[in-house]
Specification:
With 405 residues, the chain is α+β, with helices and mostly antiparallel strands. 17% of the residues lie in helices and 29% in strands. Helix 3 (201-211) packs parallel to helix 6. It comes from Helicobacter valdiviensis.
C-alpha cells in the first residue's frame, strides 16, 4: 500500500471509528471529562421562577410616584404576595418576584435616596423585566439540556446539578495499552551505555493521553522479536499504541505482523515529520504504531490520533479546531507537507527555533505551544499573513475544520 496524504488518513480514521464503548452510571463528580451516553432533557426551567437579579425594589413598571413598601423578600422565602397598584416590595438577589411586579430598581437608583422605611418615590415608569431574571430565559423544561456525546466538563456538570441529577450514564473509558519498541532502549530508571537511549516515548505518550483525560497502562519495552510482538498485540485492550517498529528497517517486525494479521488502515503518511506511522484494525481492537523518533511521534499523536481516540470514546466534538493567527516572523518551507512546531502569543505565530530541528529532538516540543500544518503548496510564510494554527491545548468541535494551510 502507498503512503496516504494527511487528508486521506483523516478520512480513513473518521470512517473506521465504528467502535462503540459500553455504558456505565457514575456519580456526578466522578463523571468529569467523560462523554454522555444519552441526551439529557431539561426537567426544570432555568430559572424556574421569576427572580431578582439584584437587591432593590420590585414593582409594576407602569407605576411611578410614591410606592408603599408592602413586604421584604429574601431568597428562599415562600411568601405568596400579590402587589396592587401603588405598591412595591423590598427584595434581595435571588428572591421570587411577587405577582403584579415586572420591574426592579436597585437601592442606589431610588429617587431622593431611600430614607423612608414605609415608601419609596419613583420618578418615572420603569422598564418591563428590568433587573429581573425571567422564568425559563436560559432554558425551558422539555428542551435539550445536553446532547449524547457531549463532554462533561465543569460547566456541563453544573448544568446537570441544576436539574437535581446526581448520577449520569456515560461511556466507559477506552482500555489503552502503551508499549515502547527497540533493543536499544533503557527505561529512565535504568543505567544506559553510550550506545543506548532512555525510553522517553512511553512517558510522552502516556502523559499526553492523560492531559486529554485518557487513561493508559504501560506494558514495557518490546524486544525486536516477532513472537513477542505478536503475543502483545493479542492483549485485551481496545487500543494498543507502540512507539518504534513502524519503519521498514531490518529488525522492525511490526509492519510484517500487521500486514499479515490485520487490516492496515494507514500504512504510512506523506508528511514530515511522521511518515513511518501505521494504524491497523485487528479483530476488535486498533493498533497504532507511532514513529520511534520522539518529536515525530508526539506531533502525530496530537493532530491525528487524539481526534480518532475521542471519536472512539463516543465524543460528539472530536474534530480539531484551528485558530487564525498572523505570522510574525517570515519563514520558508520545502515543497512538501510539513507539520511545524510553533510559538503562538500576542505577537502572532513563529516557527520554533526557526524550524531548524530534527524529528529525533525533544527540546523543541518543550519550547512550543502550537502546531502549523502546511501543504505542499505552502512554501513561504510572510510576516502579517494569516494562517491556521493548532494550539497544544487542543480545541474540539462537532464539525470538520480545515486546519491545513
Amino acid at each position: 500500500m502507498e503512503s496516504l496524504s494527511l487528508q486521506e488518513a483523516l478520512e480513513v480514521l473518521e470512517n473506521n471509528a465504528s467502535f462503540k464503548p459500553n455504558v456505565e452510571i457514575l456519580p456526578l463528580l466522578e463523571a468529569q471529562n467523560r462523554f454522555l451516553a444519552s441526551t439529557q432533557i431539561c426537567q426544570k426551567s432555568l430559572p424556574s421562577f421569576n427572580s431578582a437579579a439584584m437587591d432593590g425594589f420590585a414593582f409594576n413598571h407602569t407605576n411611578k410616584g410614591e410606592l408603599k413598601i408592602k413586604e421584604t423578600l429574601f431568597a428562599g422565602d415562600k411568601k405568596e404576595i400579590i402587589l396592587q397598584n401603588g405598591e412595591c416590595v423590598k427584595i434581595m438577589t435571588g428572591a421570587k418576584i411577587p405577582k403584579g411586579a415586572d420591574s426592579l430598581t436597585p437601592f442606589e437608583e431610588i429617587e431622593g435616596g431611600f430614607s423612608n422605611k414605609d415608601s419609596i418615590f419613583v420618578k418615572e415608569e420603569g422598564k418591563i423585566w428590568n433587573n429581573i431574571r425571567q422564568e425559563g430565559e436560559e432554558i425551558t423544561k422539555g428542551e435539550t439540556l445536553l446532547k449524547e456525546g457531549e463532554e462533561l466538563d465543569e460547566n456541563a456538570l453544573m448544568l446537570l446539578a441544576t436539574q437535581g441529577i446526581s448520577y449520569v450514564d456515560v461511556y466507559e473509558k477506552l482500555k489503552i495499552g502503551v508499549f515502547a519498541s527497540g533493543d536499544e532502549l533503557k527505561e529512565p530508571w535504568e543505567t544506559s551505555s553510550p550506545h543506548q537511549i532512555h525510553n522517553s516515548n512511553a512517558t510522552m505518550i502516556i502523559s499526553t493521553l492523560k492531559s486529554f483525560h485518557f487513561s493508559a497502562h504501560y506494558g514495557g519495552i518490546l524486544k525486536d522479536n516477532k513472537e513477542t510482538i505478536a503475543k502483545v498485540l493479542q492483549s485485551p485492550y481496545d487500543i494498543i499504541i507502540t512507539s518504534g517498529g513502524a519503519s521498514k528497517g531490518e529488525a522492525d517486525f511490526m509492519r510484517e505482523i500487521l500486514q499479515n494479521n490485520a487490516t492496515l488502515l494507514i500504512p504510512s503518511l506523506k508528511i514530515r515529520p511522521g511518515k513511518p506511522i501505521m494504524v491497523a484494525k485487528m479483530q476488535n481492537k486498533f493498533i497504532i504504531a507511532l514513529p520511534g523518533n520522539p518529536l515525530a511521534g508526539a506531533v502525530l499523536l496530537r493532530f491525528l490520533i487524539l481526534p480518532f481516540l475521542r471519536k472512539l470514546s463516543g465524543a460528539r466534538a472530536h474534530f480539531l479546531q484551528s485558530i487564525p493567527i498572523k505570522i510574525c516572523e517570515e519563514f520558508s518551507l520545502k515543497n512538501r507537507m510539513d507539520a511545524m512546531l510553533g510559538i503562538a502569543n500576542h505577537e502572532g505565530f513563529k516557527l520554533t527555533q526557526k524550524g531548524k530541528y530534527g524529528s529525533s529532538c525533544t527540546l523543541p516540543l518543550h519550547l512550543s505551544n502550537a502546531l502549523g500544518i502546511f501543504s505542499e503548496n505552502f512554501t513561504l510564510g510572510k510576516a502579517g499573513e494569516e494562517i491556521q494554527a493548532l494550539p497544544f491545548k487542543l480545541i474540539w468541535g462537532d464539525k470538520k475544520c480545515n486546519f491545513i494551510n
